[in-house]
Amino acid sequence: MARQSSFGDTRVSLPRVNLLPKEIKERRLAQRQRGGIAIAFVVLLALLGLWYVRESQKLTEARQEADRERAVAAGLRASKAELQPYAALGSQIAAAEQLRAKVYAREIRFSGILQDISAIIPGDVWLTQMSVALKETGAEGGAAAAAAALTPGSPGAGSPVASITFTGAGLGHVDVGSFVRALSTGPKKRGSRVYLNPYFTASQKDAEEGGETTVTFSATVDLSQAAFSGRFQAGGQPGTVTP
Length: 243
Known about the structure:
Distance between the termini: 103 Å
CATH architecture of one domain: 2-Layer Sandwich
Shape: rod-shaped
Strand order of the largest sheet: 3-4-8-7
Order of helices and strands: EEHHEHEHEEEE
Mean pLDDT: 82
Low-confidence stretches: 1-7
């Protein structure tokens, strides 16, 4: 590159002469290139070393985490083995509860029926005999179809689950009739009538004894599904079995 010198207003460019041989210039250029390559290689090795250290740390952490997970899994397996007898016991309890629900699905507590009758029977009417006939479970399909064809209010209408026959006496026909009317408007359970189709089968006046006239009668009444106790059933609903 030429040098410039100023003398007053005149600028003079001096020529620049490189006296180094061409071989030395090329050697220096090659040395600079090799130095750059070496520096780049060292930097690359440093980066690779940092990457290796980082990945090694990640691998170590992953192995430690895997060891912890295996320890937790081993602890859970040990706990499961310890609790297995309780699981078997729970299955037995569930099976027993299901069997109990099935057994009690159609339970009618006649102690409650007697309490209902004693509460609604007039004071001048008394019972001498009472019998109950339960409907067979296997015949419910045909019985329901037959009940649908019956006149509402007649014995057997409304798909009853049982029927009760009463034999008793009272001071008069009116008193006996009030007992039957009380059955027709008897108590409800879960919003449904328990007693259906109260019906006289006989009512006759007996001869006077000691100046007092009595009337003997026989009557029937059906029980609806509301008569089921609902004990041990799903949601306490009668006739349902816990799955």
